[in-house]
């Protein structure tokens, strides 16, 4: 299936992006647009006793100040606020009442003629509170943490059942390791600020440009919150400047902008400030205990993984954090305990590969510690514990080329030259450390609907309500459609990010590439069938006896696959049939087959160089070998992995949301002080895609948006140990943690 | 945006006159600090006096061998100035350790001296902070204080001065030239920045209405044996946890004169004459450096999150002095600690 799938095709939206032609949610303008500035709470918990907006109202150019006291009606039941991916609980309702549930909570919206006036006036709103004691520290809430309940919701996760006799296996193990690992709260910090432009159309309908990973999710949610009819609200998000999970759930900028647009019957834009972005979701802090027991030869015999993760007081967000441990390695005995600590913060949420980077930081650090205890090469330990089956559900994998990741990754890295003893490798004044870790993620596919409109001149429009959050969805959709329709890439146009388009799930979970590419394949088949019917009617048609699955579309022709000389051009078939345009819309459901586990895997190798006296850490090399099924576009795919590795470096060494627990407030709420890696922190990164054939879906696609970050932080932490002999079990690994 | 007046000064006299007319006015040079603070509602000047047209953009030699740096010389221009590179390479190095290229292109010499602390609480008007709002309390004590002071702090404020440039200037014993309504004066660098004491709202000893016109460097530049070593939480674009500007004059293996100043650890670039006295006449070796470091840090005190800085500072002093002694200054492009 040439010539586009599997190639390094540049982004079809690249030029629009670099020239600024690509418009983001806060860049759509209409005459008379009003601007909203959000006022946020300065306490973490309590009640608003007085809200004085009079000074703000007096500012010239201010149109209104909306608060819980004067806002128009909003739904009064939790169900209305439940979006497609809401966790169990009672979702936050912006400007609903006087209750304060977290610091930086939106409590008023100042609407003015310019954003500057709105922002100034917002600073004049005075608020009095009745404060209640809060807790924002997971360590303070840890003892009160409660076990998760298997969720009723479809997006929930059930922790796997224990297997074997883990307690006995641990007790009898020849070699045991037990440790506690901590990962702090991290924020997504996408480059683009959350913003929504709501256009109040002359017929009273709303057109909402929102930064989101799911336009239809936002549309349904807004209909629920405001009791609007679906026809009355259209949500668009043609381009998204990064979201990483923060935009899976509808965010409050959209609610506030719609609230104001409805109250004032005007078009309104609301853009959050960078500090206000810290009032959105976050990767939950997690305290984990891992216990491993092994035979002297490195056979893993017991795994116990306990986790406490942070959520809000009003919703129960969690993923399968503990389950990864029993899935990744062969081990007859396993048990898990997963608890939730309720904090006075917004609800935690999905952030790139939710749960896995955190869980695998613990598991893969623990495996490294076990390897040390066994005096075994850490890679060799992984190979001895290699699992051919998903033991959590006792089933095989649909494909698993992890062994090949280990082999190719180790070879590219030069792992066999590693001296296993800590502090044994040096480069002048620097200690050199080599560490490795495994990554695992899900290969999911979701129901999706794709519409294709083909015109007789050989151009096609492919439409689906999915988003492109920067991952390259536009491009892979065009590649797949071009190959399958047998048309040049330039003849394909992509429509996405619009709630009126055919149904798509939110773009998350690395599932869009698999879902939309196979969705395109299904719809192309319907287009092909219609074309074949037309082709058969051409006089003396060479395809008169061909069955649909015997023909393909190539080079603008309908071609008999058994005999390439039998063909009819698309143009002829359509012209002869008097058809100018063929339009097909099909829904593709993933296979319902649960008998096999579907996962992507990775092997990550990292080199660090650490100044022995001062502890400055440099990550000088990373090799990431990925088994992720078919790679649709080697360029955008490796960009996904590169970006993930950089993020993994940040997770290992830099990232931490600093909360003042007395104030219950994030103190480094800006990207000068919330550190992510800068160029100087990033050196050689090599990405390898190992061959992996998977037949779970016709295209063999698994998805690559998230697997790249998993395993990076533990590989670096393990390298730090190898370099220094010092084990750091709490992230980020700042240099002071290396000092005695 | 909060309403404020804007005025453009044509010359120093004009600037001083404009300032004298409005005690709540502020000068703006590169704007990289002031504008941020205005956006965050931390600074609320009634008038912003743009001094970017003042003729203070030259780096000139002064009779007797020093250098005079105009207050509006941009950090980038200063870092790559041939005379600075040749005679005061420690200053060039410190400048390049700060911020980013884009910020350095805007940042001025005068503005860098007067940049305000990066204490998280100072920037967040929802929190108590004595420096921003005298008498409201210090949130950093008992709060997030990883970046805070280990020397010279008070119960009122434990913030640090964030500049890199100033650390080198302190080490070089620069002189700050200022002009006010009552004329010109020169302030020795060591007396320019203040300790917080009971008045943390005052960062410096600049009097109301005074403008910085220049910084003068004395002839001694330590151009052979020097270093600027900056340690931070990522390899670039972060403020110092600890930084050291060091310069030595050696005679054989003996230290004739040695200066070192630290950044990131106090409300001002920190020098200690006693610690430097411990270098004078001593062999340039680890033992000497350790003794000097111990003297330097004898009164150091840590808080909940920053106590590590005491040990880190000790290691950095020793490393910086040995870099200087060996004539192998820290590179600001390769982040490998030499
Ligand atoms: C994200 C970020 C990272 C940074 N990282 C670093 C770093 O690592 N190291 C470092 O050293 N710095 C760093 N900086 C700070 C930067 O160096 C300062 O912002 C800059 O030097 C200030 O100079 P300016 O000309 O822009 O000052 P302005 O913002 O224009 O002014 C600052 C203050 O000085 C006053 N002022 C300016 N000129 C004069 C004058 N001639 N006379 C009297 N008063 C005057 C102003 O009134 C104002 O109060 C960083 C800044 C940012 C935003
Ligand atoms: S250390 Fe100083 S600047 Fe920081 S909160 Fe305390 S008083 Fe304010």
Short description:
The complex is a heterodimer of chains A (740) and B (338). Chain A has 740 residues and is an alpha+beta fold.
Tag the structure with descriptive keywords.
heterodimer; A: 740 residues; Aldehyde Oxidoreductase, domain 3; Aldehyde Oxidoreductase, domain 4; 7-stranded mixed β-sheet; 5-stranded mixed β-sheet; 24% helix; globular; B: 338 residues; alpha+beta; Uridine Diphospho-n-acetylenolpyruvylglucosamine Reductase, domain 2; Enolase-like, domain 1; 5-stranded antiparallel β-sheet; 4-stranded antiparallel β-sheet; 13 helices; 12 strands; binds flavin-adenine dinucleotide
CATH fold group of the domain at 225-325 in chain B: Enolase-like, domain 1
The count of β-strands of chain B is 12
What characterizes the major β-sheet of chain B? Answer: 5 strands, antiparallel
Cα Rg of chain A: 27 Å
How are the strands of the largest sheet of chain A arranged?
Answer: 3-5-1-12-9-10-11
| Percent of residues in helices of chain B | 25-40%
CATH H-level superfamily of the domain at 225-325 in chain B: CO dehydrogenase flavoprotein, C-terminal domain
Largest interface: A-B, 40 and 36 residues
Which percent band covers the strand fraction of chain A? 25-35%
How much helix is in the residues of chain A? 10-25%
Given this structure, which CATH class of the largest domain in chain A is correct? Alpha Beta
Shape of chain B: globular
Question: What would you say this structure looks like, in words?
Answer:
The complex is a heterodimer of chains A (740) and B (338). Chain A is built from 17 helices and 31 strands. Chain A is α+β, with helices and mostly antiparallel strands. Chain A folds into three domains: 18-133 and 190-273, Aldehyde oxidase/xanthine dehydrogenase, a/b hammerhead (Aldehyde Oxidoreductase, domain 3), CATH 3.90.1170.50; 142-186 and 282-444 and 595-738, Aldehyde Oxidoreductase, domain 4; 446-588, Aldehyde oxidase/xanthine dehydrogenase, molybdopterin binding domain (Aldehyde Oxidoreductase, domain 4), CATH 3.30.365.10. In chain A, helix 13 (473-485) packs parallel to helix 14 (512-536) and helix 14 (512-536) packs across helix 15. The longest helix of chain A has 25 residues, at 512-536. The mean pLDDT of chain A is 96. In chain B, the strands form three sheets. Chain B has a five-stranded antiparallel beta sheet. Chain B has helices spanning 12-20, 34-39, 75-79, 82-87, 89-96, 101-106, 109-114, 120-123, 165-172, 189-192, 273-277, 286-296, 308-326; strands spanning 5-8, 25-28, 47-50, 59-61, 67-70, 175-180, 183-188, 211-217, 225-231, 242-251, 254-263, 270-271. The interface between A and B is large, with 40 and 36 residues. Iron/sulfur cluster binds next to helix 8 of chain B.
